[in-house]
């Protein structure tokens, strides 16, 4: 469960995030939708405590991120916009590194890692150095690394960015599996179809503010547009930065 | 609340984890390996030893080998020429333009005797022997001194004979005589040659850790891996300490290899031929290591700080090569203005290590108080640098690459 209340963050004169608030519930997939530069990544960075909000509150499973950032990070699995694998380490070693930083005991580490390697179908690449991995292989490794500690809340920043059709489909299946396991899944995207197909709830961000927070159906009803993309354009008031 | 909770109380040993990962990852990087374990620690001793050997051999060669000197008007002073021959000089035929020959380094020096020589000599008047040389040619210095000494001693010998022939004591002509009593021990003479050694050690430490320092801050940011790393439930200062430890491990290894190389190669130095004694054995190595350990931490912290300010790997490389100039300062300062070492100087990082190593080379050993000052001074500086690094690591901007 992730609760965000009235977040503000400015860089100099630029108000990147200007009053964002929403909730992402357990057992649901929540999509953070918005055009490029709307403030999605900055919002997520405040969620996983990489940045401190100027104002507002982040609660993860009821824990205030400002009070106990370490406990919050322990309950989060994060796939940042920057995947940042260590290219001189193999996929398994990349995963192990984060597992140890999470404090996983060795036996648990092994079981969790192999389960993830299987679930993400990366057995054939697990012992290769990540240098030269395809975008899809990189995302898989980064996701396995992010989920190694079995977090209840999963944050994915533009997870399908740069993936081909097959990899995207596989990733969607994986996200549905995470939801079925009762986790709280929060992901950002600027791609309509993806959000519409996956999400239980859509939070639309534009110019640093939440402009809609509904189920996909309610969103269509609210705007009177049967097509989600048209609904989206209507909500944010322009079609700039949109990718269908 | 969430159904999936962490099942056990997990304690992360972040420091060790980060340290081991960085060491392992960098052991796989050929450039880091070569610079930390080959070029850094081995190249400097080799070049150093080669330079010293060459310079020693050259001095020895010059002292022992026959020296060819063109002489103009050799026929006027057969006795002087005989005396020079006895001193190992081989007179060469006269050349047309001695000044030009010297300027163009065709000859180190040329002797010129005037046609007046025999007449003046017979009348007991002072005669002139012209020595044409170029003092800006360092190389020629030894030859010039040697010929000069031979001529002087010939003159003196002849003078003594003339005085004796006139029934005077030779002492009348030289009321004051200089008696040289050189207090330099064999070791302290070697120090002159080894003045660059302290800098070489610092340089080795610097190069040993350099690629790691860049990789662990600027490099990691360029690869955008700091952001996911900081998403882990580990305080950033622990991550920094793990990284610093990895840098220190590499630079320490570098220094060890360098010391080992010196102790091996030092045995083949022909220093004894110059009446010198230099001991680069285990005792020396252990003391250098002791003197340098706070310096290792200080340099690691400084390198990380500088690299953290850089936006990219290349930028960090540029900054660090500038920082590399810094440790040479004490060596140069002490060379151009030799001051008597004061106690406080030992507490100054770099300067303290320099003086300490010179003390070791001199054979006197480092006084316990000086050792303590050196360690404490540098350790304090290292602590400050690490603290600044920790502060910097807390900054929000550090992790953001885009």
Description of the molecule:
The complex is a heterodimer of chains A (244) and B (402). Chain A is of the alpha/beta class and 244 residues long. Chain A has a domain at 85-150. Chain A is 38% helix and 25% strand. Chain A contains nine helices and ten strands. A six-stranded mixed β-sheet of chain A has the order 6-7-8-3-9-10, sandwiched between helices. In chain A, a hairpin with a 2-residue loop joins strand 1 and strand 2. In chain A, helix 3 runs parallel beside helix 5 and helix 8 packs across helix 9 (228-236). Chain A is globular and about 50 Å long. Chain A starts with a strand and ends in an 8-residue tail after the last helix. By secondary structure, chain B is mostly helical. Helix content of chain B is 62%, strand content 5%. A four-stranded mixed β-sheet of chain B has the order 2-1-3-4. The relative contact order of chain B is 0.12. Chain A binds chain B through residues 1, 26, 45, 48-52, 61-62, 70-71, 73-76, 78-89, 93, 97-98, 100-105, 108, 142, 145-146, 149-153, 181-184, and chain B through 1-6, 8, 10-14, 17-18, 21, 24-26, 28-29, 220, 223-235, 396, 399-402.
Structure summarized in a few sentences:
The complex is a heterodimer of chains A (244) and B (402). With 244 residues, chain A is α/β, with parallel strands linked by helices.
Quote the beta fraction of chain A. Answer: 25-35%
Shape of chain B: elongated
Name the poorly predicted regions of chain B. Answer: 1-7
Count of discrete structural domains of chain B: 2
**Beta-strand content estimate of chain B:** under 5%
Largest sheet of chain A: 6 strands, mixed
Mean of residue pLDDT values of chain B: 83
Compressed to H and E, one letter per element, the order of chain A equals: EEEHEEHEHHHEHEHEEHH
| Biggest sheet features of chain B | 4 strands, mixed
Counting DSSP H or I runs of 4 or more residues, the number of helices of chain A is 9
